[in-house]
Amino acid sequence: MYPDFPSAASTGPLSCLPQQLGVAQRLIIAYQRQIQSLALALEASQAQVATLERECALHQQRYIDQGHALSESAERCRDLRSRLWRQQQYNLQLKSALEKSFPDHHIGQSLLASLSQTPLTSSTTVPIPPWSEVQPPPPTAALPAGAAKPRLDLPVFE
């Protein structure tokens, strides 16, 4: 790495000093250029690392946000499926009760057909609240004396 300097014994101590000084100065200049080049490369690499770290942090945050959104969507889906299942069970029980209440097959079938033809998304449709939001029904007024209590064979949901 270092150039071979002529020995001081062969040429005399003072005659080779200017030559050694020139070689040393050229080496210093070459080393300074190399240091400067490496410093620039280091700065560029550090800037790239900082950019990649910022992008990584953004991607991680986006991943976390998407995970939360997915969890919320899955929870909503479970809730809607549960509500749909309960509504279907209620509809089956209503159908069974109507079939029992109307022994004449034609009347029951026409009533069921008219019920099934009503659109589910009409403007008067009230959304079904989750069970956690359902309030108990208000107490009903007492029936007048002698009035028969209506009979429905529907199970009570609790």
Give a topology summary.
Blueprint: H1 8-11, H2 17-101, H3 105-117
Helix pairs in contact: 2-3
Describe the structure in brief:
The protein is mostly helical and 158 residues long. It has three helices and no strands.
Protein architecture, described:
By secondary structure, this protein is mainly α. It has three helices and no strands.
Report Rg.
45 Å
Proportion of helical residues: 55-70%
Average pLDDT confidence is 79
Low confidence ranges: none
**SSE string:** HHH
Largest sheet: none
Number of helices: 3
Number of strands: 0
Q: Outline, from the CA principal axes?
A: rod-shaped
Kindly report how far apart the N and C termini lie: 90 Å
Q: Report the structural category.
A: mainly alpha
Oligomer: single chain
Assess the beta-strand content as a share of residues. under 5%
